[in-house]
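#lab-general

N.A. 3:47 PM
ok so I finally got the sequence cleaned up, no stray characters, all 155 residues accounted for. can someone with queue access submit it? mine expired

B.Y. 3:52 PM
send it over

N.A. 3:53 PM
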Amino acid sequence: MRSNYDTLVHVPRSNHLIFPWWKRKILHPELQDGGPLSFDVSEIEFHQLKEQKRRKFLSGQVIYDYHIRHHMLEADFGLREFRAIEERGLRFFETHFFGKVLVGWKSVIMDPTAAYVPFQCVRKSALILDWCHIENVHFHVKGFAARLPEKYFMA
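B.Y. 4:20 PM
back already:
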């Protein structure tokens, strides 16, 4: 039987969040520090658009626009949640997210010419946190918007 510690992730929301040096603008700065101080990964929701499930690839801009139109960004993961999962390590990620690429739509940033979104996955036996260009990179069937359930945002 697993203890709650096995699935609990603590999110230090008061720490200064460091974005890539090349970013010009954080598109949703008001959302970066919002959310619970901890969450249970067994309760995470993995969201994909219907078109994403049916096709091999779908433009990230289409997905991002959908999340904005449907007011989903507040519950989406962002850089802060990814850093907290990163602290738990590779084994934790593989245990709970095996085969998935988590995309953090809450933390989309701009460089001088384009928008980028953070993603987290295992590549070559290493847990990586990286950024991809949302207009040119296509999100395949392994790419999921990681989201916290509504109960984390109820007063």
